[in-house]
Design brief:
This is LytR C-terminal domain-containing protein. By secondary structure, the protein is α/β, with parallel strands linked by helices. It contains five helices and five strands. Helix 3 (101-111) links the parallel strand 1 and strand 2.
């Protein structure tokens, strides 16, 4: 070649294209980031409109409710076991003007498994002053134990406790409206229900 531009020596200049790799890498990373953010946002919108999060929460709540609904085998503070009739001593006292009621009632209670103590007329505090079927009297400790058991044998009888009373024996004081003890079948049914109360129903409103 001649002219103004002349190549000298044994090396020729290399023609190179402008470097664009850096720009391509930056564009690629930016595109991936945009697509990722867009996809995540789409999933969030799908959950909002389909209620996916609420379903999981509801499932967790139902599971928790199912666990809480199970009755405890031995609940804390459980009531004392109901005493058996054979462990309860009953004094049968007649507060009416009808003779022989105390002994007849005592004999029937004995047949039903109760232990019989004193059989006599009622003291002046109650004599001819009990208008209902009767009064069941015992110490304060018997309020929720022995008194309910004796109460199954004379439905409608008034129950009283005396804090100053000594011993564990109970008094069955016969009143003017007394016509006999509760029928044995009904008394046995009431006694069974007292000894085996039905568990409280589990709440469904979690």
């Amino acid at each position: 070649m001649g002219g103004q531009y002349r190549i000298t020596g044994d090396k020729y200049p290399r023609m190179r294209r402008p470097r664009r790799r850096g720009k391509l890498v930056v564009l690629t990373v930016a595109s991936v980031a945009v697509l990722g953010v867009g996809g995540w946002g789409t999933l969030q919108l799908i959950d909002v409109f389909t209620g996916g999060g609420d379903s999981a929460s509801a499932a967790g709540t139902k599971a928790a409710c199912g666990i809480g609904a199970k009755p405890s085998a031995s609940p804390a503070g459980a009531a004392e076991p109901v005493p058996r009739p054979g462990t309860i001593t009953v004094n049968v006292l007649n507060a009416t003007t009808r003779g022989g009621l105390a002994q007849k009632t005592a004999d029937e209670l004995k047949k039903r498994g109760f232990r019989i103590g004193e059989v006599a007329n009622a003291p002046a505090t109650f004599d001819k002053k009990v208008k209902g079927t009767g009064v069941l009297l015992g110490p304060a400790a018997a309020l929720d134990t022995a008194l309910p058991v004796l109460g199954t044998q004379l439905a409608g009888a008034e129950r009283r406790t005396d804090p100053a009373r000594k011993g564990a024996a109970l008094d069955l004081i016969i009143g003017d409206a007394f016509r006999g003890l509760t029928a044995k079948a009904a008394a046995d049914k009431a006694l069974t229900a007292l000894a085996n109360p039905e568990p409280a129903a589990a709440s469904k409103n979690c």
